[in-house]
From TrEMBL:
Pfam families: Lum_binding. It comes from Streptomyces labedae. Keywords: Repeat, Riboflavin biosynthesis, Transferase. CDD domains: Riboflavin_synthase_like. This is Riboflavin synthase. Residues 1-96, 97-193 form the Lumazine-binding domain. Catalyzes the dismutation of two molecules of 6,7-dimethyl-8-ribityllumazine, resulting in the formation of riboflavin and 5-amino-6-(D-ribitylamino)uracil.
Length: 204
């Protein structure tokens, strides 16, 4: 489990294209401290498994399903990525519950800067809109954010200077893709209520 609090801005140092997957080598001095084979690290919000680790770099294999359902397929050598290690038991939950399982991708639509923060508008797939509510939580490229405004096909978030300086959202521009993970609690509530309604329908 992750919390959506990015630990560092890493970099893709190598990309190896395989038949039905990709192998990425990524640099991250913070997240590689104590890393070992089999550990999990979130890369732009996607939970990946450490295959190999040497110095401040690690490699991770990404299968076709993940490449198709996330924006990781657009990464190239030199791409900056948000990195986060799993939350340790007993640590503070700084953001919200994040699984590292991307629900879909959006696109940066617009950026509106102001003196102390920036409003970013992001497109929202139709199948995810019911999970996104004003003042609710959403994960964008692995960053836990609060929704400012929620529309049918878009939402906005307000970014403070720290987020702009320490994550990929500080450098992404209109047209760039981002990974989206909605609040898992909303999905569980929907499933439970749906099963309950269906059960009551059968009883009647």
């Amino acid at each position: 489990m992750f919390t959506g609090i990015v630990e560092e801005l890493g970099e893709v140092t190598a990309v190896e294209t395989l038949d039905d997957a990709c192998r990425f080598r990524l640099r991250g001095p913070v997240v590689t401290q104590g890393a070992k084979h089999g550990d999990s690290i979130a890369v732009n919000g996607v939970c990946l498994t450490v295959v190999d680790h040497e110095g401040d770099e690690f490699t991770a294999d990404v299968m076709a399903e993940t490449l198709n359902r996330s924006s990781l397929g657009a990464l190239a050598v030199g791409s900056r990525v948000n990195l986060e290690r799993p939350t340790a038991v007993g640590d503070r939950l700084g953001g919200h519950i994040v699984q590292g399982h991307v629900d879909g991708t959006g696109e940066i639509l617009d950026r509106t800067p102001s003196e102390h923060w920036e409003i970013v508008k992001i497109s929202l797939p139709a199948e995810l809109s019911r999970y996104v509510v004003e003042k609710g939580s959403i994960t964008v490229d692995g960053i836990s954010l609060t929704v400012v405004d929620a529309g049918r096909d878009h939402f906005t978030v307000s970014l403070i200077p720290t987020t702009l300086a320490l994550t990929t959202l500080g450098i992404k521009k209109p047209g760039d893709p981002v990974n989206l993970e909605v609040d898992v609690i909303a999905k569980y509530v929907e499933r439970m209520l749906g099963d309950r309604v269906a059960g009551e329908g059968v009883t009647r």
